[in-house]
Amino acid sequence: MAPRNHSTITEFILLGLSADPHVEVLLFVLFLLIYILTIMGNLMMLLVIKSDSRLHTPMYFFLSNLSFLDLCFSSVTVPKLLEDLLSEKKTISVEGCLTQVFFVFITAGTEAFLLSMMAYDRYAAICHPLLYGQVMNNQLCVKLVLTSWGLASLNSVVIVLLAVNLDFCEVPTIHHYTCELPSLLPLSCSDISIHIDILICSTLLHGLGTFFPIFISYVRIISTILSISSTTGRSKAFNTCSSHLIAVTLFFGSGLVRYLMPTSGSSLDLLASLQYSVVTPMLNPLIYSLKNKDVKAALKKMLEKGL
After folding, report:
1. pLDDT digits over 55-64, tens only?
2. CB-based burial label for 86 (10 Å; 0-12, 13-18, 19+)
């Protein structure tokens, strides 16, 4: 059969997480609960940071942006997942699929940049505390966030252009619960070698380009912490960045596995995607609130005012 351009294809079929209706009902309840917790947790972080003037610092400015991103990131994939878990026919239009690819990349890409900037913020606070206020001023913080959105948007446009140029021979079945480029590429009738090379280069440049500053920042941070003579001082310094370390590990670990490993449609692909796009946005507010005395104090104060 001669290949047809993807414009003649109106929809994709999503295999989802399970074909068993009973399992799908249980999964629907589970992911609905996760989504509700994600929305509530991240909105809580936004409200707490906004309501307490003590949290109007660069670190919490970045954290509020992270909460906003997690709200967006989760909302790109989870509502469609919930809909499909209750539907017999799991399909998504070509336009909807490309839109999902775009927003997955722009939200994930911006979050990677933001985590990198948060690492630099911790480096400045711990290694150069006397200059921290001058280095991490409000104007710089806003510019860094806007730059992260701009670079992630540019990368997302490149990725979508790759997907737009794919050809399919028949209505394709995506062995996944959402539209991601690694799952679309194997379904194409076109020669995808260039597409794969560009995707790998993009992932390496974006992923390692944001991870390398994190690594360098923490090498300097750990060196500085080890030079502190007081045990209490070392513990306090480490506690200021432990939450960020956990968030980085969860996000980059699963994200790099998903986009650098060959796509096989296996459970590992699904678990990696669920980890960074569903589970991590839910966990981030818990990580930053449970391990942060300032956030807990601000939350307690806000709740007391509400009561």
Report:
1. 888 988 999 9
2. exposed
